[in-house]
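ARCHIVE CARD
CATEGORY: sequence design from structure
SOURCE FIELD: tokenized fold
FIELD CONTENT:
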């Protein structure tokens, strides 16, 4: 009896372990390869599924490709890294493809921990370019994040602000105009700012864009922008400083 129970428990553990990486996985071969840390084999097998008629519309293989590329990017083997110099870049690429394929966000929601992990890496890289005042590349990376989280208007506003600083005026204004409408609507309906994890980015975007408007001699627009920011972030020291400078408050 004890032996029988041990077998049952072992089977239960193995089954759950094999599906522990992609939650809700239906591709057992991929789960097995991934859990055995055979990332190159899993990558190759996942890729073949994206071409087969029966599976090419499935989202899961793209998620496995993203996860495998991510694991490869962390390896220290110089030969592996030489073979996959763009592993992290490809991880992001296939995660975005996965998001497009996962129409109902079935796997996206279940595997949000991995998505958030990659999302943070994208944001960190975007912020690095932003701090270096490379606004074109910052916008490119913020756009990648936006493809994973299209409802995050904090990021969209920053894309617009970076676009304006990168002299991409039409696109920059488009992003700002679309984002601010939803942000103001949420504020008026007494909704807290959504996507609290990126609210700091919105705060910085307001400062960036209002400074751009001042330098462009559009003082009224700068005042309007920073006035909205002051309502959104009443306790922000940086917003208050910018507000006082633009409105010449002593």
């Amino acid at each position: 009896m004890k032996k029988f129970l041990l077998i049952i428990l072992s089977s239960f553990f193995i089954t759950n372990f094999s599906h522990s990486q992609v939650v809700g996985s239906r591709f057992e071969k991929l789960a097995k390869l991934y859990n055995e840390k055979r990332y190159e084999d899993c990558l190759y097998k996942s890729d073949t599924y994206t071409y087969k008629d029966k599976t090419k519309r499935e989202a899961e293989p793209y998620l496995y490709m993203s996860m495998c590329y991510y694991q490869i990017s962390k390896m220290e083997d110089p030969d592996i890294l030489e073979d996959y110099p763009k592993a992290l870049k490809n991880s992001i690429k296939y995660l975005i493809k996965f998001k497009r394929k996962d129409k109902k966000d079935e796997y996206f929601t279940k595997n949000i921990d991995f998505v958030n992990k990659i999302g943070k890496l994208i944001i960190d890289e975007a912020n690095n370019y932003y701090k270096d005042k490379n606004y074109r590349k910052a916008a490119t990376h913020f756009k990648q994040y936006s493809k994973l989280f299209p409802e995050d208007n904090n990021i969209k506003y920053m894309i617009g602000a970076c676009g304006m600083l990168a002299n991409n005026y039409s696109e920059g204004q488009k992003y700002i105009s679309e984002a601010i409408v939803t942000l103001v609507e949420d504020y008026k309906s007494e909704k807290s700012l959504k996507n609290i994890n990126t609210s700091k980015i919105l705060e910085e975007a307001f400062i960036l864009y209002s400074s751009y408007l001042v330098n462009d001699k559009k003082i009224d627009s700068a005042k309007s922008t920073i006035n909205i920011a002051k309502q959104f972030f009443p306790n922000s020291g940086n917003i208050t400083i910018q507000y006082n400078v633009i409105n010449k408050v002593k």
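CARD ANNOTATION: Residues 1-20 have pLDDT under 50 and may be disordered. Residues 135-250 form a domain with the Serine Threonine Protein Phosphatase 5, Tetratricopeptide repeat fold (CATH 1.25.40).
SHELF: design records, drawer C
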